[in-house]
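Thread: "does anyone have the structure for this chain?"

Original post by V.I.:
We have the sequence but no experimental structure in hand. Need at least a predicted one for the grant figures.
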Amino acid sequence: MKDPRILKLAENLVGYSVEVQPGENVLIEMIGTERDLLNAIIHEVGKKSGNVFVQLTDRKVQSAMLRNATKEMLETWAEIDLNRMKQMHCYIGIRAGENVNDLSDVPEDKMKMYNSIYQHAVHSEQRVKHTKWVVLRYPNDSMAQLANISTEAFEDFYFDVCNLDYAKMDRAQDALADLMNRTDKVRISGPGTDLSFSIKQIGAVKCSGQCNIPDGEVYTAPVRDSVNGTISYNAQTLYNGITFENVKFRFENGKIVEATSNDTKRLNDILDSDEGARYIGEFAIGFNPHILHPMKDILFDEKIAGSLHFTPGQAYETADNGNRSSIHWDLVLIQRPEYGGGEIYFDDVLIRKDGIFVLPELEPLNPENLK
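Reply from O.Q.:
Generated one for you, tokens below.
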């Protein structure tokens, strides 16, 4: 008998996250060896009279392909998969790989080509903008190890997070989205951080289980040239299979003019991918009550309760500041007391202190009210 939590997750993904309608084409991409959730999703799409298409991706095979990739090969690969993506109405992406570092031995120049030629065209421009999509991880030994807990404990945590009442969370987000829509100046302060920027007339977007599982954020973007000051991120982050920590940026008129980390050279190589990579494409506030600590998995880490992320690279068209890049790198700052604390101000009014919302209308987003 299948785990009822898997069946519930499949039902939520198909019926709530992407809302499959009769006759719609649904692409399910499974990275890794997990099959129970995949089969459950296929069954749910069938119940909705949708058309299922499946791609099985093996990271080790993908790594070998990328190490041997040429510009011409990547262009052909992108053309083939872009044509398929253009025929899809929905996309469900499941990441269940065994080793988060499988792509770490792909040369940097190859990864840059892959991101700019393939990922940007197929996913950033087509899938994100023109399909109903949701992306999620799937619990396995590798993820449990990153979270520093047993596999069984991680599975319990995972299903608590992924099967949260996202409709309730969606309602609780209304006040924050409305406030962000009315806000001009934002200031973020904390250890090693004193950052200011404007979000005037950019717009705010609620995230409550439609595009990511787990979920729990409201995002916007800074006016492109308005960012000034410094930010010191305190969550480890993976990019192209490489771990970065102690990332710190200094901004002048929107541009990252100084960037340091445990691997400063590689960090700056990424930020030099194109002009837009040194500008910010997203500012988001995270508040999933079950996610408390980073595990080098951005789909979880960017939703940490009491966190924010400030993202170099591509902006979303739904909250667009005009920044375009092949990079979109969500970097996370946690502001709960055990991570050093910190404040967020909107138009000089304190809205969150040490990870807790202090305005009455925002209190429904505090952890005790979302569980």
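V.I.: this helps a lot. Residues 108-130 form the longest helix (23 residues).
O.Q.: and The mean pLDDT is 93.
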